[in-house]
Amino acid sequence: MAQAVSAQRVAAESNFSEAARQALYAGLISFGLFVLFIGLRTDQNIRNELILVQRWGTLAIVVLLTMAGRFLFVAFAQPAIAARAAARAKATAVAAEPGALRKNGTKLAILALFLYPIFILWAVGLQGSLKWVDNFGIQILIYVMLAWGLNIVVGLAGLLDLGYVAFYAVGAYSYALLGTELGWSFWILLPAAGIMAAFWGVILGFPVLRLRGDYLAIVTLAFGEIIRLVLINWREVTNGSAGISGIPKVDFFGLFDFNVSSDIYFGKVFGLAASGAYYKIFLYYLIVLLCLLTAFVTIRLRRMPVGRAWEALREDEIACRSLGINTTTTKLTAFAIGAMFGGFAGSFFAARQGFVSPESFVFLESAIILAIVVLGGMGSLMGIAIAALVMIGGTEILREMTFLKQVFGQDFTPELYRMLLFGLAMIIVMVWKPRGFVGSREPTAFLHQRKAISAAFTKEGHG
Amino acid sequence: MAAQPLLDVRGIETYYGNIRALNSVDVTVDQGEIVALIGANGAGKSTLMMTIFGSPRARTGTITFAGTDITNLPTHEIARLRIAQSPEGRRIFPRMTVMENLQMGASLDNLKYYDEDVEKVFHLFPRLKERIAQRGGTLSGGEQQMLSIGRALMARPKLLLLDEPSLGLAPLIVKQIFDAIRELNRTQGLTVFLVEQNAFGALKLANRGYVMVNGRVTMSGTGKELLADPEVRAAYLEGGRH
Ligand SMILES: Nc1ncnc2c1ncn2[C@@H]1O[C@H](COP(=O)(O)OP(=O)(O)OP(=O)(O)O)[C@@H](O)[C@H]1O
Ligand SMILES: [Mg+2]
């Protein structure tokens, strides 16, 4: 035992010295490479003369970053990768039972989701919490929900849909229009928006029943654009590109609400000072619940005939037909249920923003949602959640990186590099894990069905 | 006992666009029989199998199964009448496990027989049981064929259609598969209609056979008769697999 520990220590030390050596080399190489590119820059002065600007500081930062990166990679990442490979080699022998962390991972993740706002409140106080709960929490969770909804269509049923944002838009406008015109409550309009979106899912589904792959992708892409153009041009109803504002907030089942002027304002009811943060925290928990609903429904459906038919459809349509599966209804239910969750997310979005306009529903959104599904590993709920966290969280964090201004100059706006980061992350993930974060499918059938199903329920997650 | 054949195909013509792939084809399969259909590549054998299943649809003629006219039924409803098929190219679900593939074959309304049926398939093909959690796409060709047949059996079919079960398999595996078909027929009285390139094996296995040339049935008879027929011998057996 003691021997093993000391052996580990020796291994770690040799790791560090090796890492330091390699970092030095990497630094030298990057210095050699960048000394002319970054260290010196030609520029024009006021008299139009060519001058050399020296940028040793920037060069030093680049070289140091390279060295640090190499050091961290060799010292920590490489041993971790090696250990994982070894563990995997060992694990194949006893692969049947997932590890304790994996088994409880879902529960821990859900617990963390519920504790997150409390932690934020404790850490940065009520006013400071706005950014963390809203920009990070809610923003990421909206994408998690959208991606989980699209996952039903793309990941499970294998129908490549490039126009998913259309259903998001239908949901958002349903709530915006009915909420402002009729003044109905969110709790009535949420299901209504879902049904509306599902209806449009079926409308889209019918003409594309016979299409697959790239043809399907193009038609759905066009569908997404059509919905957006209708929203822009049908001014009498949608108010065109100006959008709809003054969308009512969500209330808590009539017990209290979040309008400062109202009699049942949350702050008044509970004797607290007025603040916008309550609403955001409330919305946060609302979207958490909506996400959990999506996950729960997906997991249940996967084990039911319709869910199994979706997956079979993705694998082989002809085989499906010869097994007596009605491919028409299978496809339509996939479109409808996927669209319904898009509609839920849309009405939530409208309630959160208080304002909707066609600008929120451009093709880029569809592409981002699809990218999250693909990165997460087509079909895996956990993988998709991780992908959303990394991609959306990552781009939000870029906004925070004001220190980059010191490096790259004052006119550097990190947000503009969002898409660059997105692309880069996609390439890296696809090289590193070509099937996405969680590329393996959890089987849903076992030898003794009843026992296996009860076991599968305790295992949950990893849709 | 069988006054009326289980499957009765009469005067079927099937077209791909303007090309006629089947030309007034008549085929009958009686309850409890094994019937083989042999013919050269492109003769229209797979087309006949698929036409029975309603995709593509016959332009003229009628197909009757157990007294029901199925000529114009949608494919999934035909399957619901308990016709099961192991289609050309096996078409198992590659990312699903052996177990899930079998589960997909089980007709959705009689899950009460599920455990029993799974055991039957494993009894027939013990190899599948060893590979129960393996993904279908990683099975060997022979195992995939077993899985394809096993999946079709999960529907508790009254009629089993097999399209080239011996395609690309080693002689030993072919024998195993043919033995399995014979056993199913003997012990459970399963009716089988199979398409084969391996004319010798198929005709030996079958009670009756049909020969198809260019979309027409040109010959029919018992397996023995066809095996002895000089024309059949010349066209499908000499120099072929014996
Ligand atoms: N989807 C299709 N579209 C157009 N022509 C087709 C189609 N499927 C088959 N054919 C044509 O119909 C004819 C019969 O094909 P079929 O697949 O039934 O032959 P087969 O007897 O099963 O041959 P093999 O033994 O090679 O499997 C062939 O000439 C083939 O080219
Ligand atoms: Mg064929």
TrEMBL record, chain A:
<feature type="transmembrane region" description="Helical">
    <location>
        <begin position="416"/>
        <end position="432"/>
    </location>
</feature>
<feature type="transmembrane region" description="Helical">
    <location>
        <begin position="332"/>
        <end position="355"/>
    </location>
</feature>
<feature type="transmembrane region" description="Helical">
    <location>
        <begin position="108"/>
        <end position="128"/>
    </location>
</feature>
<feature type="transmembrane region" description="Helical">
    <location>
        <begin position="367"/>
        <end position="395"/>
    </location>
</feature>
<feature type="domain" description="High-affinity branched-chain amino acid transport system permease LivHM N-terminal">
    <location>
        <begin position="21"/>
        <end position="114"/>
    </location>
</feature>
<feature type="transmembrane region" description="Helical">
    <location>
        <begin position="52"/>
        <end position="73"/>
    </location>
</feature>
<protein>
    <submittedName>
        <fullName>Branched-chain amino acid ABC transporter permease</fullName>
    </submittedName>
</protein>
<feature type="transmembrane region" description="Helical">
    <location>
        <begin position="215"/>
        <end position="234"/>
    </location>
</feature>
<dbReference type="Pfam" id="PF11862">
    <property type="entry name" value="DUF3382"/>
</dbReference>
<dbReference type="InterPro" id="IPR043428">
    <property type="entry name" value="LivM-like"/>
</dbReference>
<dbReference type="InterPro" id="IPR001851">
    <property type="entry name" value="ABC_transp_permease"/>
</dbReference>
<keyword id="KW-1133">Transmembrane helix</keyword>
<keyword id="KW-0472">Membrane</keyword>
<feature type="transmembrane region" description="Helical">
    <location>
        <begin position="140"/>
        <end position="164"/>
    </location>
</feature>
<dbReference type="InterPro" id="IPR021807">
    <property type="entry name" value="LivHM_N"/>
</dbReference>
<dbReference type="GO" id="GO:0005886">
    <property type="term" value="C:plasma membrane"/>
</dbReference>
<keyword id="KW-1003">Cell membrane</keyword>
<dbReference type="Pfam" id="PF02653">
    <property type="entry name" value="BPD_transp_2"/>
</dbReference>
<dbReference type="GO" id="GO:0015658">
    <property type="term" value="F:branched-chain amino acid transmembrane transporter activity"/>
</dbReference>
<feature type="transmembrane region" description="Helical">
    <location>
        <begin position="184"/>
        <end position="208"/>
    </location>
</feature>
<keyword id="KW-0812">Transmembrane</keyword>
<feature type="transmembrane region" description="Helical">
    <location>
        <begin position="281"/>
        <end position="299"/>
    </location>
</feature>
From TrEMBL, chain B:
<dbReference type="Pfam" id="PF00005">
    <property type="entry name" value="ABC_tran"/>
</dbReference>
<protein>
    <submittedName>
        <fullName>ABC transporter ATP-binding protein</fullName>
    </submittedName>
</protein>
<dbReference type="InterPro" id="IPR052156">
    <property type="entry name" value="BCAA_Transport_ATP-bd_LivF"/>
</dbReference>
<dbReference type="GO" id="GO:0005524">
    <property type="term" value="F:ATP binding"/>
</dbReference>
<comment type="similarity">
    <text>Belongs to the ABC transporter superfamily.</text>
</comment>
<keyword id="KW-0813">Transport</keyword>
<feature type="domain" description="ABC transporter">
    <location>
        <begin position="7"/>
        <end position="239"/>
    </location>
</feature>
<dbReference type="InterPro" id="IPR003593">
    <property type="entry name" value="AAA+_ATPase"/>
</dbReference>
<dbReference type="InterPro" id="IPR003439">
    <property type="entry name" value="ABC_transporter-like_ATP-bd"/>
</dbReference>
<dbReference type="GO" id="GO:0016887">
    <property type="term" value="F:ATP hydrolysis activity"/>
</dbReference>
<dbReference type="GO" id="GO:0015658">
    <property type="term" value="F:branched-chain amino acid transmembrane transporter activity"/>
</dbReference>
<keyword id="KW-0067">ATP-binding</keyword>
<keyword id="KW-0547">Nucleotide-binding</keyword>
<keyword id="KW-0029">Amino-acid transport</keyword>
<dbReference type="GO" id="GO:0015807">
    <property type="term" value="P:L-amino acid transport"/>
</dbReference>
<dbReference type="InterPro" id="IPR030660">
    <property type="entry name" value="ABC_branched_ATPase_LivF/BraG"/>
</dbReference>
<dbReference type="InterPro" id="IPR027417">
    <property type="entry name" value="P-loop_NTPase"/>
</dbReference>
<dbReference type="InterPro" id="IPR017871">
    <property type="entry name" value="ABC_transporter-like_CS"/>
</dbReference>
